[in-house]
Amino acid sequence: MRGRVVAVLREQHTPQNSNGANEAAIYLVAVERWLRGGTSSTPRVLKVLVPGADLPWAESNARGVGFRFDNDPMLKPGARYIMFLQLIASRGGLHQAGPVMAEADGVTGVGAENDEFMFPEGLRGKVLLQRGMALSLPTSDTHQPWKFDDGEQIVGIPASVSEAEIAQAVAEVASTTEGHQAGRH
Q1: Which of 38, 101, 102, 178 has the most CB atoms within 10 Å of its CB?
Q2: Confidence band, pLDDT 50/70/90 cuts, at residue 185
Q3: What CA–CA distance (Å, rounded) separates 174 from 169?
Q4: Helices of type H across 37-158
Q5: Are β-strands 80-83 and 157-158 bridged in parallel, bridged antiparallel, or unpaired?
Q6: Which residues, 6 or more positions from 19, have their beta carbon under 8 angstroms from its beta carbon?
Q7: How many helices and strands (H and E) does the chain possess?
């Protein structure tokens, strides 16, 4: 989907009742266009969970504030992105009712709500749209933007071209999937 980050809904420890370094930020993202999925009943504002936050934490003999993954940058409120998302509660193919549970450092509790989305590909699931271009996000562990190993690129090119390439690939996958399903009947 293509959308704009509206706000940070909350920051939380994961699981929520822990005080460890596992943290997450949940963003509100306004959907501008669905490139795959989405129906008239699909919410126009999504909750997107990204690992990392700015909360105080304590583990064993260590204490600190904030946690980030070097290779999975946080979203920026106000910025527009193309996002490749997965509903957290449907990992493994089944939709889970109720909150999604997590365990860290011997503490079990709520890790996410069942209506929150995540990036299954982390860094590669976020394409920044800025000044008419589709850009990869900078990370602290590389100076080169990521690109796919081969084939068409969706970063480092005009945003309209990137979105068209993605829409075409999604349509091809959908028609292939429908063709396989029709052949089973």
Answers
A1: 102
A2: very low
A3: 9
A4: none
A5: unpaired
A6: 13, 56, 57, 58
A7: 1, 13
58 - beta bridge partners?
63
Q: What b-and-e string marks burial along 86-100, b requiring 16 or more CB atoms within 10 Å of the CB?
A: ebbbeeeeeeeeebb
Is residue 118 within 8 A of residue 48, CB to CB? The reply is: yes
- Chain centroid offset of residue 178 CA: 26
pTM of the model: 0.83
- What are the backbone dihedrals phi and psi of residue 23, each rounded to the nearest 5 degrees, phi first? -130, 160
Termini Cα distance of the chain: 31
Q: Which residue has the tokens 């909150």?
A: 99
Q: What is the pLDDT of residue 96?
A: 65
Tell me the one-letter amino acid at 163. Answer: E
Tokens of 82: 């193309």
